[in-house]
C-alpha cells in the first residue's frame, strides 16, 4: 500500500458512521450485507448511508455489487490487511525492547 492510499483509507475511517459501517462489513465476512441491512443496523437514513458507503468505496476499503434493485456491500479484506501492514511495517525496528515487537495474530486471518 502506498502512502496516498493509506491516507485515503484512514480519512474514510475517520468518521463514526463510516467506521461503524466498515466494522459491520468486516463482521459479515465475504458475503457482505445489503445496504438496507446496514442502514437498519446503524439506524442511519438510506441517503446518509449511501454517502458514507460511497466514501468507503472511493477509499478502496469496500466494494459493491448490484443485485436487482438492491446493492450488496462487502469489505475488501486485502485492502484492510494492506492498511494494517502499512501501519505496522518496521514496527519497533529501532527498539531493543522485545516486548515492543508485534505479537502473533489473534484469531483467524482475513
TrEMBL record:
HTH arsR-type domain ranges (all copies): 1-95
InterPro entries given in the database record: ArsR-like_HTH, HTH_ArsR_DNA-bd_dom, Metal_resp_trans_reg, WH-like_DNA-bd_sf, WH_DNA-bd_sf
Key words, A-Z: DNA-binding, Transcription, Transcription regulation
PROSITE patterns reported in the protein's UniProt record: HTH_ARSR_2
Annotated SMART domains: HTH_ARSR (SM00418)
PANTHER family registered for this protein in UniProt: ARSENICAL RESISTANCE OPERON REPRESSOR ARSR-RELATED
Protein name per Swiss-Prot or TrEMBL: Metalloregulator ArsR/SmtB family transcription factor
Lineage: Bacteria, Pseudomonadati, Pseudomonadota, Gammaproteobacteria, Lysobacterales
Amino acid at each position: 500500500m502506498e502512502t496516498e492510499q493509506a491516507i485515503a483509507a484512514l480519512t474514510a475511517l475517520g468518521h463514526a458512521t463510516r467506521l461503524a459501517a466498515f466494522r459491520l462489513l468486516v463482521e459479515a465476512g465475504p458475503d457482505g450485507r445489503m445496504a438496507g441491512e446496514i442502514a437498519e443496523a446503524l439506524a442511519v437514513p438510506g441517503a446518509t448511508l449511501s454517502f458514507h458507503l460511497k466514501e468507503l468505496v472511493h477509499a478502496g476499503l469496500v466494494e459493491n455489487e448490484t443485485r436487482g434493485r438492491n446493492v450488496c456491500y462487502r469489505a475488501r479484506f486485502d485492502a484492510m490487511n494492506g492498511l494494517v501492514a502499512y501501519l505496522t511495517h518496521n514496527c519497533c525496528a529501532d527498539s531493543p525492547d522485545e516486548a515492543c515487537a508485534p505479537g502473533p495474530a489473534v484469531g483467524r486471518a482475513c
